[in-house]
């Protein structure tokens, strides 16, 4: 096993990885920007190295600085966390070329799945159903219109290199195609440095259901059930639950087996998530994420498996610590993404957290790097805490969620706690009757 792991991330994710390492007897190295000198992950790690100024491109995305930090501290392995360099195949390759272990999938899998056209082709060939769409890149407005005629309106124009819901535009008719196409390309170019786009049928009322898998890189893959991430704003997840209220045991086992078997054929290593849209009882693959996900705790809560620990063990060459038949889903779990934002306008609210109180009690978990006196810097993502609750069934979980949200105190900055509290009382949510559009079009429209 590794003696020392460098955590190339910040915030609650860095803390999450530190905690797993600590419990495994592995020493940790935190890296941080000058803006994060007082961050909790820096305080708790065994060692820390400042890797640059506040802007992410100069610090958390600064590959030479991160590798230097790993060298000077004598780390054996690097965990990329979530976001930042976690899906950068070049980074994974460079880490390995410098003699460190990359805690994640093979660079080739990261590269292939990071290109959504290659990803769809790859999984389709392995028997996974995909959203109907263009078979490859769409290179002109005329080609986009021709594709749309075949696919059927409305259509979605999406960035091949997409992520975070950017570079995605809807067209309802041929007139709208030109603008949607141009806008999607421009947004993709600006966000990803790659303006290639492809097209899909725009599904009217799907749910977003994703399957967690874990593989050893030698053809053994286990699926750990699904997460329902349909509650979204601007194609970004707001609250997630597991299991999905929309699936029964038969549908769950079927999609899990399809996902695991495809990943086994790829000899996939480490954690992975296959994302699907689910409509009228049918699954359609949209993309695969080759990393730990923000919403991984709800899977941990219902399976009892520490996913980060498993990820580190696999990276060290150990076999999977369980077989498919060992996996049993227990109860229900919900995660709320608590952002330092106004709960109605969603404008960021950085600043000093003058008081902080985390809720507790049976079945309540908070993954957060907050503390009283912490200054939330304005340079990064606004996620400041994940509140995760577990109950023996969905109803108990909902009641627990409500009372935990009532207990949490994050003083002096605006947060999305009031949004989650309202959501936890909304009849459609309580009944499990929502699709990917409900939060924006119904709940927030009121
Ligand atoms: P990103 O990588 O930018 O997150 P995804 O392909 O994962 O993009 O899609 C993000 C979200 O956008 C989905 O969860 C869903 O809400 C919506 N979406 C994506 N593709 C479609 C589609 N074909 N029809 C309807 N909604 C879609």
Question: Which helices and strands, and how do they pair?
Answer:
Layout: E1 4-7, H1 11-23, E2 27-33, H2 40-44, E3 47-52, H3 63-73, E4 77-79, H4 89-97, E5 101-102, H5 107-114, H6 116-125, H7 141-151, E6 155-159, E7 168-171, H8 174-192, E8 197-201, E9 207-216, E10 221-233, E11 236-242, H9 249-265, E12 269-279, E13 282-289, H10 296-303, H11 307-315, E14 332-339, E15 351-352, E16 356-357, E17 364-368, E18 375-376, E19 383-391, H12 394-407, E20 409-410, H13 417-423, H14 427-430, H15 438-443
Parallel strand pairs: 1-2, 1-4, 2-3, 4-5
Antiparallel strand pairs: 6-7, 6-8, 9-10, 9-12, 10-11, 11-14, 12-13, 14-19, 15-18, 16-20, 17-19
Helix pairs in contact: 4-5, 7-8, 12-13
Descriptive notes:
The protein is an alpha+beta fold and 446 residues long. The chain folds into 3 domains: 4-101, Rossmann fold (3-Layer(aba) Sandwich), CATH 3.40.50; 132-201, Dna Ligase, domain 1; 207-443, ATP-grasp fold, B domain (D-amino Acid Aminotransferase, Chain A, domain 1, 2-Layer Sandwich), CATH 3.30.470.20. It has helices spanning 11-23, 40-44, 63-73, 89-97, 107-114, 116-125, 141-151, 174-192, 249-265, 296-303, 307-315, 394-407, 417-423, 427-430, 438-443, and strands at residues 4-7, 27-33, 47-52, 77-79, 101-102, 155-159, 168-171, 197-201, 207-216, 221-233, 236-242, 269-279, 282-289, 332-339, 351-352, 356-357, 364-368, 375-376, 383-391, 409-410. It has an 8-stranded antiparallel β-sheet, sandwiched between helices. Strands 3-2-1-4-5 form a 5-stranded parallel β-sheet. Strand 10 and strand 11 (236-242) form a beta hairpin. The longest helix has 19 residues, at 174-192. It is globular, with a radius of gyration of 21 Å. The chain binds adenosine-5'-diphosphate. Residues 131, 156, 162-165, 200-203, 206, 208, 232, 235, 275, 277, 286-287, 436 line the site of adenosine-5'-diphosphate. Residues 1-444 form the Biotin carboxylation domain. Keywords: ATP-binding, Biotin, Fatty acid biosynthesis, Fatty acid metabolism, Ligase, Lipid biosynthesis, Lipid metabolism, Magnesium, Metal-binding, Nucleotide-binding. It comes from Nisaea acidiphila. GO terms for molecular function: ATP binding; biotin carboxylase activity; metal ion binding.
């Amino acid at each position: 096993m590794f003696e020392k792991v460098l955590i190339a991330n910040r915030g609650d994710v860095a803390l999450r990885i530190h905690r797993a390492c600590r419990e495994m007897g592995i020493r940790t190295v935190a890296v941080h920007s000058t803006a994060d000198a007082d961050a909790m992950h820096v305080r708790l790690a065994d060692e820390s190295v400042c890797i640059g100024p506040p802007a992410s491109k100069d610090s958390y995305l600064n590959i030479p600085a991160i590798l230097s930090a790993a060298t000077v501290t004598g780390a054996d392995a690097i965990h990329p966390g979530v976001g930042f360099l976690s899906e950068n195949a070049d980074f994974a390759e460079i880490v390995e070329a410098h003699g460190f272990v990359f805690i994640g999938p093979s660079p080739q899998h990261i590269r292939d799945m990071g290109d959504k056209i290659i990803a769809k082709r790859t999984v389709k060939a392995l028997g996974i159903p995909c959203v109907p769409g263009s078979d490859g890149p769409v290179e002109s407005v005329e080609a986009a219109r021709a594709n749309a005629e075949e696919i059927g309106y409305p259509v979605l124009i999406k960035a091949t290199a997409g992520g975070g819901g950017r570079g995605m535009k809807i067209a309802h008719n041929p007139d709208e195609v030109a603008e949607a196409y141009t806008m999607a390309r421009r947004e993709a170019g600006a966000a990803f440095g790659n303006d290639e786009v492809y097209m899909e049928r725009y599904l009217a009322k799907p749910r977003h259901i994703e399957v967690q898998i874990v593989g050893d890189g030698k053809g053994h893959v286990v699926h750990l059930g699904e997460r329902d991430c349909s509650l979204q704003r601007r194609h970004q997840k707001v609250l997630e639950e597991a299991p999905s209220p929309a699936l029964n045991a038969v549908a769950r086992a079927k999609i899990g087996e399809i996902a695991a078997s495809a990943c086994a054929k790829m000899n996939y290593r480490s954690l992975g998530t296959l994302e699907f849209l689910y409509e009228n009882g049918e699954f359609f693959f949209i993309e695969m994420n080759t990393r730990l996900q923000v919403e991984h705790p709800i899977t941990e809560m219902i399976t009892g498996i520490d996913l980060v620990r498993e990820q580190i063990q696999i990276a060290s060459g150990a076999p999977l610590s369980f077989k498919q038949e060992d996996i049993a889903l227990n109860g229900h779990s919900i995660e709320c993404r608590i952002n330092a934002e106004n709960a109605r306008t969603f404008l960021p609210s950085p600043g000093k957290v003058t008081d902080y109180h985390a809720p507790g009690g049976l079945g309540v978990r908070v993954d957060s790097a907050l503390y009283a006196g912490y200054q939330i810097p304005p340079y990064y993502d606004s996620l400041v805490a994940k509140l995760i609750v577990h109950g023996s069934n969905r109803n108990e979980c909902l009641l627990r969620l409500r009372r935990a949200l009532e207990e949490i105190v994050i003083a002096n900055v605006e947060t999305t706690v009031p949004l989650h509290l309202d959501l936890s009382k909304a009849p459609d949510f309580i009944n499990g009757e929502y699709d990917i559009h409900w939060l924006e079009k119904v709940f927030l429209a009121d």
